Please model this.
Amino acid sequence: MVGMDDVYAVILAGGGGERFWPFSTARLPKQFLTLFGPRSLLTETVERVRSLVPVERLLVVAGARHAPLIRRHIPDLPRGNLLQEPAGRDTAAAIGLASVVVERRHPDPVMLVFPADHAIADIRGFRRTMRRAVAVLRRHDALVTVGVRPTRPETGYGYILAGEPMVGAPGVRRVRRFLEKPSRTRAVRLARDPRCTWNAGIFAWRNRTIQRRFAALMPELWGRLCRIRDAWGRRNGGGVLAREFARMAKISVDYGILEKSPDVVVVPAAFPWDDLGSWSALERVLRPDRTGNVVVGEHVGIESADCVIYGTEKPIRTLGLKGFIVVDGPDGILVCPKARAQEVKRLRQAPVRRRR
Amino acid sequence: MVGMDDVYAVILAGGGGERFWPFSTARLPKQFLTLFGPRSLLTETVERVRSLVPVERLLVVAGARHAPLIRRHIPDLPRGNLLQEPAGRDTAAAIGLASVVVERRHPDPVMLVFPADHAIADIRGFRRTMRRAVAVLRRHDALVTVGVRPTRPETGYGYILAGEPMVGAPGVRRVRRFLEKPSRTRAVRLARDPRCTWNAGIFAWRNRTIQRRFAALMPELWGRLCRIRDAWGRRNGGGVLAREFARMAKISVDYGILEKSPDVVVVPAAFPWDDLGSWSALERVLRPDRTGNVVVGEHVGIESADCVIYGTEKPIRTLGLKGFIVVDGPDGILVCPKARAQEVKRLRQAPVRRRR
Model:
């Protein structure tokens, strides 16, 4: 059994997308919603992670405006374990912040990183996978990613192309390349390729290792992180954090570090996973009825099939509607073809027309 | 100038359709709604008709359950001028009821009949047309219909095929045939045919003439009407009305009388007209924007065109939606292709699916 006493977990809860509009908004992002079951995605993520580490070694990085929401979702999270981003600066900055805070608590812990808003149904498979990732780190100084076996040619995900196997760690392989959101044709090929897995955004590394990478590959960002670390807990700590964070590059850890590092390995996920990237994910999480419709709420349909119908306030009636998403939420009503669910966030910028 | 002192007007306000669901319902039919402008269709109809006859000679036939609504829409309607149908029995029964009530007030008046829920923008053209219909009746004992010049090959309307012109009444012609809801191909031909007009459901006749037709063509219904007339105003009047009305055939005056009468004439309408039969009518009443969308409320659209978007409670956002109707109303949300707007009433009977 692998030791977990020096393991810290970081949940990245800073996402603020609008792809689940009219439910998710900048004010209330997806991780806080209970669209898919009785508990929010954040609550489910926290429960999963707490099966690995106690809450004292769990850090949550989130936007400062969402701090009250985080406290409501995780009431017993120690105050100092909520790291408030003054502004959204993508995952490199968020992970870097967690890294310098963890450094003050332990000389060289193992750090696990988890997105707050994905769906993982099999908690035992999840624990097995993460313990395996930690076991790899006990023998190799690597950056560990978790790769999910593709079940469809998804064009919205990033793919990991694995290379040679690691000696002494069956199933674990070195990463040869990261492939971001492929074309349809390429996705079909990648999904069939046994060397390819989906990048779940779940990582594991020793804290010193990731810090060395920050210093080498993102020196400017690392300089700012060091200034934040040195001022942390001091009188001017908040001011330094705000100033330095605002100036950080908005870059993902995948792009800023992983894609440029030689020692990245991929551990196969022993669990099904979904990033719940858009409303069309609902048909993978809930079960479609005989007509292929996924319905939450009350629906009356004639010749309506393969739709996602979501509305809990009042009935939705559709006639001759095939392959569409219809959502009634607190902030409005959405109608779009399922195939274009990824583009829902574009609607935020579109001009408003008003009549009467 | 034609005399109007013996003219009675009857507004048929008994319709109870659901084609404007989620606004119109059996509880609140279309004629009471303000979907198309600041005033209800009934209010507009009453104003038009009052430009022809005083309110004392205006009768309104409506479902008993809607009596309070009628009184709110026409506060100064004399109490005895609201004829309450115990049940919906289509236009032959409604007109017959008005006929026997009018008979008690005047030995042989002219009766004008109007649907309560159509759109007629040109009130002067309307008055001119109706005065002309009355003028025809001063010289000929006929059943007068009003025919509207078609502006499109509408398949949802009834058509009137005119025959030879009436001597001494320019533009007025004898009716050769009524043609109900034609096929698409036939509608294209009819709309082009100068002899064809739309049947607007507006009629004029002497009361004795229509009663003779009832007696000859619908003798059973006429018998019931006579029993209602004889009991009218007596202690058992309500009971007789309820009993006889419930047993009447559900037949339109067009089908029960006009199509079988030899002396029907058609006066051309000097006004544009729309029966507002479904949500797609909105694009004829309101002006589409540059993208062809007709919007009431707040709409954000990307690649959305030729839609009818109606929602005043919260914003509606659409992406890649072409030729659809989206309506957010008090009783629910409707989504269907514009071309199938006529079928919305079918949704009432469809099974409800509920989840979570």
Summary: Chain B is about 30% helix and 30% strand. Chain B has two domains: 7-274, 279-348.
